[in-house]
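Lab notes, practical 5.
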Amino acid sequence: MQIPENLSGLAPAATAQDGMAAMPGAGMSPQQMPGPQASQQEQENYDAFVSMALMLLFDDESLPSMVEAVDTEDPREGVARLTAQIVGRVAQSASAKGTVFPLDILLQGSAEIFENVVDLAEEAGVYAFSSDPRMLQGALVRAYDHLQQILDQNGLIDDAEIEAGFEEIKAAAANGTLVDSLGVAGADLEPVDPGAALGLDKQEGDAPPPDDAMSGGLG
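Output from the prediction step:
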């Protein structure tokens, strides 16, 4: 599998940031926080979360293992697991330093990280997700399922909050609107069964594999 030579179209350019700029990974430019107009503090927290995740994803030392992680037999699974592992790693690192990201930031920010992981997979020649909206949606459903397990198992968010937040994700998957925020051109998605998207071989309580791809970045 070839490592992409030019990542300029994937990772946002480094910029100076206020607020949490001293946190690991801060310095990249995330998108505007989705949904209703965010407060300044919410936007700063969202920027910090996404910046740390992008720094981890595109770290020079770990990039080869990131590419290897998305190159799986089922491309949906590689992209999904890597997205969830990155988000979980950032949440754990921030929590250890006294910063707890709210669930809405984790959920909304995960979609942006997912986009970047998908771009990485496409640049590496793993799969053309942009031309297959149903595969894209299936991968995102799986990513949120793995993330739910990681957050729950590591006590990173209240159980009741997890359940409520992920019920919204499952509802969006069921009515075919889950990837609307990803801007898939011409996507005409039909409702999907989240269980089917997760794969028939998935067992209750299965956890994502150890995040051994995460050898650099946040430390």
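Observations recorded by the TA: Residues 6-29, 182-192, 197-211 have pLDDT under 50 and may be disordered. The first helix runs from residue 40 to 57.
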